[in-house]
Amino acid sequence: MTGSQVFLSSENYPASMPDCSTTSGATCSVQTSDGSSIRITALDLQFSQKSGVCQQRIHITDMLTNTDISCQENNQFVKTKIYESSGGSIEIRLDNTATATEGKFWIQIEGETIFCKHFVIHPREIVERQLHVYLPFIQK
């Protein structure tokens, strides 16, 4: 998928995401066409906690850093910049330890012509569409 911005959400958004057996480990590779930075804005982060322990996080890796976005960044529809890459390529992974249907997220990814390839790796198969990627309609 290609655009100057894409939207990524948890499965079933705006409903809560399924338990960890189907969602943990979901990944999305993002690149810009010119190597410029990639910005991520949280539109809605509502990760769940049990006994003070965050059960979900978004793990972002670029060539230099690893960043975790977790319950401390829960924003419930307050648009918040949560990440900017040092280069033009990142991988986003959802880590989920919840054993019930809970938590959700919706983020905006921006950059100069974004390419996003998303997939989920399960122990026995590769399943697409577990992370939903939406391209906005842009009128010029």
Secondary structure elements and pairings:
Layout lengths: L1 E8 L10 H4 L3 E6 L6 E8 L2 E2 L2 E2 L1 E6 L4 E4 L10 E5 L4 E8 L7 E18 L4 E2 L4 E3 L6
Antiparallel strand pairs: 1-10, 1-12, 2-9, 2-10, 3-8, 3-10, 4-5, 6-7, 6-9, 10-11
**Global morphology:** globular
Give the proportion of residues in helices: under 10%
Secondary-structure element order, as H and E?
Answer: EHEEEEEEEEEEE
Per CATH, the class reads: Mainly Beta
Alpha-carbon distance between the two ends? 19 Å
Fill in the CATH topology. Answer: Jelly Rolls
Radius of gyration: 14 Å
Q: How many domain units?
A: 1
CATH superfamily: Spermadhesin, CUB domain
> Tally of extended strands?
12
Instruction: Please state the average pLDDT score.
Output: 78
Oligomer: single chain
The count of helical stretches stands at 1
CATH architecture: Sandwich
Any low-confidence stretches, pLDDT <50, length ≥5? 119-140
Describe the main β-sheet briefly.
10 strands, antiparallel
Structural class: mainly beta
Question: What would you say this structure looks like, in words?
Answer:
The chain has one helix and twelve strands. With 140 residues, it is mainly β. The protein has one domain: Jelly Rolls (Sandwich), CATH 2.60.120. The strands form two sheets. Strands 1, 2, 3, 6, 7, 8, 9, 10, 11 and 12 form a ten-stranded antiparallel β-sheet that branches. A two-stranded antiparallel ribbon has the order 4-5. The C terminus is likely disordered.
